[in-house]
Amino acid sequence: MRTRDVVGAAGLAGVAALFIAAFTRMPAAGSGSHVYRDLVLPVGFREVTPNLVSSINFDLRALDTLGEETIVAAAVVGTLALLQPPEKEPETDGTGYVLPAVKLAGFLLLPVSVLLGIDIVVHGHLTPGGGFQGGVVLATGWHLLYLSGSYRALARLRPIDWCEYAEASATGLYVVTGLLGLALGGSFLANVLPLGQFGSLLSSGTVPVLSVLIGIEVAAGFVVLLSRFFVHGLEEQ
């Protein structure tokens, strides 16, 4: 066997051992015992975060979320490096014939989708949602311009340069927030801002701040990614 086969087999064996240990120690299905839930629930109430998923993502495991955010940023950078921009925008709209009813529905749903995405991001610490989900809704809503109108309409109204700056800034500010927690709370990404009142918009400390930063990063990153895919896809038509 080659060296890489030996290393790969050792890695697979290690992962398999971890999976076996995890599954054999899981609580029985339907049982009332759930160690992780019992640990998370008090912390969510302590940090005044009704949405426990956001409490996990942006408080208990905020460092993991930084890693996920970095993956999105790396995907954007890699795509921009591999798919170089063409000398000029494609002349085709790329959508073909679109039914008038589809156009009307798209134009009507566009502002609704944008408002919904903002609401999901801003209220992520209170209700189901958060930065990742809201960011995807925002990016998807923006591209209704392409589905209901034309690519040229999307290209005119799509702030690519601002999206690139916003994505990089949001990623950097996430790290700055973590350093603020390290300076004031003694640990990276510690929740050091005022917690406020349970259920209010201005509450949960750094949780909504990180949620908004993730929403900006995901929305801007997806817009930049899709812009480069659109350009090269339409160029081949």
TrEMBL record:
User: What parts of the sequence cross the membrane?
Assistant: 132-151, 172-190, 210-231
- GO CC annotation, single: plasma membrane
Keywords of the record = Cell membrane, Membrane, Transmembrane, Transmembrane helix
Top-level taxon of the source organism? Bacteria
Q: What is its main location?
A: membrane
Q: Where in the cell is it found?
A: Cell membrane
User: Topologically, how does it sit relative to the membrane?
Assistant: Multi-pass membrane protein
Which Pfam family, giving just one, matches this sequence? Answer: MnhB
| Residue stretches making up the Na+/H+ antiporter MnhB subunit-related protein domain | 105-223
Note the InterPro entries from the entry.
Answer: CPA3_antiporter_subunitB (IPR050622), MnhB (IPR007182)
UniProt similarity note: Belongs to the CPA3 antiporters (TC 2.A.63) subunit B family.
Stored PANTHER family: NA(+)/H(+) ANTIPORTER SUBUNIT B, NA(+)_H(+) ANTIPORTER SUBUNIT B
Name under which the protein is recorded: Multicomponent Na+:H+ antiporter subunit B
